[in-house]
Design brief:
The complex is a heterodimer. Chain A is built from 7 helices and no strands. Chain A has helices at 2-23, 27-47, 51-76, 91-113, 116-119, 132-139, 144-166. In chain A, helix 1 packs antiparallel against helix 2 and helix 2 (27-47) runs antiparallel to helix 3. Chain A starts with a helix and ends in a 14-residue tail after the last helix. Chain B is mostly helical. The chains are: A mainly alpha, B mainly alpha.
Chain lengths: 180, 101
């Protein structure tokens, strides 16, 4: 019963947040909408006993990533004069069509398939409980190599971001100052 | 009435499509990035829900790694957007057509 109430409240909030991301003129409002969606998903993770993932979701996504987004919006300014005219003909109707198709196929797979045809596994055994202890036990044994690979990835990403920010682009020759 | 895994999967599908539509329709590079994050999060919800249904913790590890990759991607992507903005003074992707054939 609790799960039902939580599903409807936070499912609606997640959808509102998602629509805000897409529809808002102001990028700051988009960021706020995304944050709403991220928090709603964190609630779903808690409901589904993925406690550690929920904590990481709030700390990394809603905390770090969204702060980064807001910093960049602040840095490059709020650009409200976004040109939304269609450059590709019939792009929006096609987007709607493809979106509806994906949703219908997704619903068909979810409701009709029960994924037994994908995995051959139907849930057996005890309920999962994603505590920090359970996650850590597997992460540092079974998933040790991917875990170390992510550390490499993070170092490369931060080095790349530093390099992009550090090396000033040279002004192109033959282009006058202040020319459009 | 209880909440089954299907409900979460349908919600995730709808969120994914909203994100994909945003990526296709919007022109502002930052908003497009946020749409990508929305799609990644929809998939994360799917991972957690299916992992719970199949009584398997592996779905949560997938979410964990998706999260790390998304964080790295945001760092590099936003750095690229900032450096583009410094040379072109715009965040609109339609302006960046120098490699157009």
């Amino acid at each position: 019963m609790t799960e039902l109430v939580l599903f409807f409240i936070f499912g609606a909030l997640a959808l509102v947040g998602g629509l805000t991301v897409v529809a808002a003129r102001n990028p700051v409002h988009s960021a706020m909408g995304l944050m709403l969606t991220l928090f709603s998903l964190a609630v779903f993770y808690v409901v589904q006993a993925a406690h550690f993932v929920a904590a990481v979701q709030v700390i990394v996504y809603a905390g770090a990533v969204m702060t980064l987004f807001l910093f960049v919006i602040m840095l490059i300014g709020v650009d409200k004069a976004e040109n939304l005219s269609e450059t590709i003909r019939l792009q929006r109707p096609l987007v709607v069509l493809v979106g509806l198709t994906v949703v219908v196929v997704g619903v068909f797979v979810a409701v009709g398939g029960r994924f037994a045809w994908i995995t051959g596994v139907v849930g057996a055994g005890p309920e999962v409980n994603g505590t920090a202890e359970a996650i850590g036990d597997d992460l540092f044994t079974t998933w040790l190599l991917p875990f170390e690979a992510t550390s490499l990835l993070l170092i490369i990403a931060s080095a790349g971001a530093l390099a992009l920010a550090f090396f000033r682009p040279r002004r192109r020759e033959g282009k006058e100052e202040g020319a459009p | 009435m209880t909440v089954t895994v299907d409900w979460y999967l349908i919600l995730a599908a709808v969120l994914f499509v909203i994100g994909a539509a945003g990526l296709l329709v919007r022109r502002n590079a930052i908003v497009m990035f946020m749409s990508i994050e929305l799609m990644l999060n929809a998939v994360n919800l799917t991972f957690v829900s299916v992992g719970r249904e199949l009584r398997d913790l592996t779905g949560q590890f997938a979410v964990f790694f998706v999260l790390v990759v998304a964080a790295a991607e945001v760092v590099v992507g936003l750095a690229i957007i900032v450096s583009i903005f410094r040379t072109r003074a715009t965040a609109s992707v339609d302006e960046l057509s120098e490699m157009k054939g």
